[in-house]
From TrEMBL, chain A:
Residues 71-261 form the ABC transmembrane type-1 domain. This is Multiple sugar transport system permease protein. It is a multi-pass membrane protein. GO terms for cellular component: plasma membrane. It comes from Neobacillus niacini. InterPro entries: MetI-like (IPR000515), MetI-like_sf (IPR035906). GO terms for biological process: transmembrane transport. Belongs to the binding-protein-dependent transport system permease family.
From TrEMBL, chain B:
Keywords: Cell membrane, Membrane, Sugar transport, Transmembrane, Transmembrane helix, Transport. The keyword ATP-binding does not apply. It is found in: Cell membrane. One of its GO terms (cellular component) is plasma membrane. The lineage of its organism: Bacteria, Bacillati, Bacillota, Bacilli, Bacillales. InterPro entries: ABC_transporter_permease, MetI-like, MetI-like_sf. Belongs to the binding-protein-dependent transport system permease family. GO terms for biological process: transmembrane transport. It comes from the Bacteria. Its main location: membrane. Residues 74-289 form the ABC transmembrane type-1 domain. This is Multiple sugar transport system permease protein.
Amino acid sequence: MRRKQKNIIVVTLAVLIAVLFLLPLVWMVFTSFKTLSESMSSSAILPNVWTLQNYIDIFSPTSDAPILLWVFNTAVITIIGTVLVVAIDILAAYSLARLQVPGKKIIIGTIIIALTVPGIVTLFPAFYMFKSFNLLDTFIPLVLPYTASTMGVFLIYNFLISFPKDLEEAAYLDGASQMQILRHVIFPAIKPVAVTLGVITFMGIYNDYLWPSLVINSNEMKTMTLGIATLIQGSNFVNPAGMMAATVVATIPAIVVFLVANKYFVKSVTNSGIK
Amino acid sequence: MHKGTSTKTWAILMVSPFILCFILFWLAPMFLGVWVSLHNWNLSSGNNGFIGLQNYIDILTPGSLYNEAFMLALKNTLVFVVISVPPLVIIALGLALILDHLPAKLKPVFRTIYFVSYSISVTAVSAIFLWLFNENGGFINNLLVSMGILGKPINWLSEQPYAWVSVLIATVWWTIGFNMMLFINALDEVDPSLYEASDLDGANGFKKFIYITLPQIKHVAFFIIIMTVIASFNLYGQSRLITAGGPEQSTTTLTMSIQNAVFGMNQLGVGSSMAILMGIIMLLVTAAQYFMSYRKKEVN
């Protein structure tokens, strides 16, 4: 009986906290369906009058916010960036963990040092490099710099060195080529870590704000995340209704990926923690 | 196994895309940053000559323009570190403990709810909290005034200490799920037989927490504190977008002041020096925390 009472208290507390966590998101969704004037004066969560006008406005071709273009840009750079990072990191981690790479110790040591150096140190020089090569305002700086991240190589490398080599050795003795071993033995084994890395990378690129804000100027080249910042700092979205409609469009893909990949996201946190 | 030239060739082929990307987009900017910081380097007119450590001296000598900007931003950043790390760590532990005591069926549901806000971007978080806290037309003021709790709206975004409160609440809501997940993992790894033994001794929940849970999770807790300090040092998006660095630059952080040196004043050299100094400060703080916990371990 006492156990049951305790359960009720804990569940009640958990529900109250859940309401606090969900309230900003719920408010965001409902505010996007309010009229402009109501959104400014409203002290209720639900709209009095429901309207789709905010969505019609932001998707109209005359809008300040070319949202469809931003969604398209974001899709291009997150997909290409994630595939590139995962592919490059798997190859490098496999090579470092299993093959005889010259200078292996130096490479791994450098990777660990790079992990501890705060990102701010390379941020502005990297911007200046792209500026010097006239590559600002293109997809190139929005995609390629993420491939320098050492986190993924380190993650997969750590997984592989604690993973038994027996299968690979058997495949090697049977005359399998390096590529065949990678495809049929290594890849199935590291799939969970690779997906985890994919999810972290996707979220990282999708949600990045500071770096895109340095290398992108024109409205047409912006990502969704950068676009929202532009709307906040601009002068045409001075009401919560329009702003929240744009924010809903920006957050839905991230939340959907998060919920679908929840299992891997949870794992990614476990992997980032010290064991 | 794996002898012969063909494996070695494969090894080099497979690692080289990463090495190339790493050199181009990490090592080169790293060295360029150090190089630029030793020059009078203007963002638009380029390199105006080698000046040794002059940029660093300017930033660290009291009285100069760059010194004022850097020290103010450093102070603001440290204020945020001090006010944000305790709630981000303690509330996260509290949430993890609540989840730990929930019936197994409900755990994943609430874990997902507490963690979902971590998946959205800092710009979306800022848009939401900007309009929750806005003085005119913001939901919280509308609500508090209509309920009669406030006579007139509070200036959440451009008056202290409210500006820090707004940035802090947005940050806690956005990032606390991550720390909570780390604590959940740590709690899961505590040996259940320890609790069973203390049950036999008749220990209550609080005693169990102090004498069993806390010592068992202290390494992870320490790791979480370091990660949170680093994250709070990097405060940028929330204070740029919610409070625009104000009022009177009181929420202008280090990253913002570096950005201002580079883009506002065109001083790439000064900005690079500031970035390197900020990096050094962060490494020193991390090392100091690490050293302190190491010393404690030795004493224990």
